[in-house]
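FAQ

Q: What does a record look like?
A: Structure on top, sequence underneath. For example:
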C-alpha cells in the first residue's frame, strides 16, 4: 500500500524501556510520525533519561543485530520528553503504550487521558487478554483502542550503551485488532510492523489479537510452578534452563497438564467475548517454532482440539521434547545440534532500597493471567487451573519475602488472587 507521510500524526510513546526506544526510532525513521514525544512515570529512570538528554541531545538510538536489516538501525529526535505523565500536553494524535499491560489504566489516568482532546487512538503494544476492553470500559473512552498480540521483536538495552535499544530478533507474525470496525488506521500500523520484516494479520477485534500471544498459554504453566519459582527466587545463580525437562528445567508432565488445562480455560473466556480460540499445538508450531513433520504429523497438529485430553498432553510433551535442540540447526562434527532450550532464568534482584525486584518473567505473566481470571469471574466462568498457578506464584513470593524479611519493589504481597 502507499503510505501517506506522517500517517500516525503527532505520536507519543508512553514508556522508556528498550521496546519504547526501538518503536520511537522506527516510527520516526520510517516517516510514520510527525512530531515524536516520549513520556515516562516520574522516578529515578526518568531523571537519568533527562540528564542523558540534556547532556547528549534529545535523541533516541536503536540498533538491530547484524543478521537483521541494518537500515532499521538509527536515531530519532524527540520533540518532547515528559519525565512525569501529568506533564503531557494536548498535542498527540496517536499514543503508543509501551509499558507492561497491568499499568495501562494507571498510565492513562496519570496522563488524564480525557484532557487530551486531540488524541484519536491508543495502541497497546503488548496487552493481555481483555486489556483493551478494560481500559475502554473503566475509563469510558470513546476513541479507538488497538491491540497487538505482542511486541514484534526481542529488544533490550545494549550492554555497551544503557540508552541504546538493541533488537536481536523479530517475530514471524503478530496480530492486530481495533475497537473500530474497518479502522482506517490499522493498515498503517500493520505497515510499521512489516517494516521490520514481521508479518501482520488484521483481525476483527482487540480480544482476537490479544488471545494470540503465545506467552499467555506457555509462561504461567512453565514459570509459575514451584520448580521454576524457586529458581527465579533463589539468591544463588541458577544453572537450570527455562525450557528443559526436569530436573534440568521446569518441564514435567504436571507442567504440560497445566498448559493444556490453562489453554482450555482461557479459550472459554476468549469464546465468551466473541473471539475464536486458538489451536494451541498449531499456534506453537506454525506461528512460533516448528518441528519436523516426522516428529508431529500435520494431521495431529490440525486436529489437536478434537483429541482426548490425554492425547493432547502427549502431543504437547512431544513438541517440547522435540525443541530441546533446534531441529533445523546444522549439527556439528559430532552430530550435536544447537542447544535450543538452554535459556537461563532471570532471577530476583536486590535493589538499593533494600527491597527485591521480581523479573518480568513471570511477573508480567502473573498480572496478565490475573486479568483473565477477573474477566472470567465476571462472566461466571471457572478457571481452577489458572487460580492454582496464581496461588503458587503468590505463595512462593510470600515465602521468599518472609525468609528475607523484606518486600518487593514491583509486587505487593496481598493475597491478590482474591477469588481463588
Amino acid at each position: 500500500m502507499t503510505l501517506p507521510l506522517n500517517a500516525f500524526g503527532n505520536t507519543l510513546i508512553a514508556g522508556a524501556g528498550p521496546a519504547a526506544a526501538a518503536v520511537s526510532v522506527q516510527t520516526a525513521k520510517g516517516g510514520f510520525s510527525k512530531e515524536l514525544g516520549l513520556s515516562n512515570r516520574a522516578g529515578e529512570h526518568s531523571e537519568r533519561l533527562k540528564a542523558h538528554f540534556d547532556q547528549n541531545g534529545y535523541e533516541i538510538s536503536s540498533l538491530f543485530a547484524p543478521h537483521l536489516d541494518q537500515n532499521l538501525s538509527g536515531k530519532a529526535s524527540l520533540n518532547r520528553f515528559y519525565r512525569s505523565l501529568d506533564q503531557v500536553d494536548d498535542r498527540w494524535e496517536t499514543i503508543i503504550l509501551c509499558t507492561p499491560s497491568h499499568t495501562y489504566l494507571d498510565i492513562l489516568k496519570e496522563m488524564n487521558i480525557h484532557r487530551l482532546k486531540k488524541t484519536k487512538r491508543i495502541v497497546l503494544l503488548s496487552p493481555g487478554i481483555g486489556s483493551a476492553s478494560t481500559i475502554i470500559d473503566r475509563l469510558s473512552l470513546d476513541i479507538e483502542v488497538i491491540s497487538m498480540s505482542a511486541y514484534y521483536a526481542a529488544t533490550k538495552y545494549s550492554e555497551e550503551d544503557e540508552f541504546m535499544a538493541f533488537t536481536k530478533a523479530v517475530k514471524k507474525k503478530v496480530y492486530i485488532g481495533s475497537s473500530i470496525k474497518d479502522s482506517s488506521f490499522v493498515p498503517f500500523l500493520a505497515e510499521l510492523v512489516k517494516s521490520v520484516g514481521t508479518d501482520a494479520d488484521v483481525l476483527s477485534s482487540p480480544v482476537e489479537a490479544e488471545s494470540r500471544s503465545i506467552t499467555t498459554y506457555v509462561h504461567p504453566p512453565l514459570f509459575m510452578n514451584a520448580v521454576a519459582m524457586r529458581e527465579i527466587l533463589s539468591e544463588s545463580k541458577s544453572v537450570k534452563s527455562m525450557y528443559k525437562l526436569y530436573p534440568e528445567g521446569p518441564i514435567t508432565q504436571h507442567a504440560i497438564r497445566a498448559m493444556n488445562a490453562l489453554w482450555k480455560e482461557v479459550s472459554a473466556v476468549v469464546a465468551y467475548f466473541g473471539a475464536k480460540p486458538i489451536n494451541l499445538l498449531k499456534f506453537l508450531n506454525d506461528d512460533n517454532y516448528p518441528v519436523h513433520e516426522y516428529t508431529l504429523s500435520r494431521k495431529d497438529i490440525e486436529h489437536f482440539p478434537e483429541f482426548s485430553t490425554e492425547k493432547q498432553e502427549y502431543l504437547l510433551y512431544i513438541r517440547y521434547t522435540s525443541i530441546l535442540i533446534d531441529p533445523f540447526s546444522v549439527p556439528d562434527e559430532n552430530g550435536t545440534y544447537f542447544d535450543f532450550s538452554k535459556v537461563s532464568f532471570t532471577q530476583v534482584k536486590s535493589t538499593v532500597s533494600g527491597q527485591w525486584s521480581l523479573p518480568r518473567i513471570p511477573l508480567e505473566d502473573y498480572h496478565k493471567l490475573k486479568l483473565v481470571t477477573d474477566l472470567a469471574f465476571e462472566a461466571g466462568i471457572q478457571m481452577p487451573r489458572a487460580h492454582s498457578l496464581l496461588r503458587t506464584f503468590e505463595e512462593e513470593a510470600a515465602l521468599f519475602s518472609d525468609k528475607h524479611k523484606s518486600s518487593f519493589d514491583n509486587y505487593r504481597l496481598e493475597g491478590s488472587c482474591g477469588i481463588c
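Q: Is there anything notable about this one?
A: The chain is about 40% helix and 15% strand.
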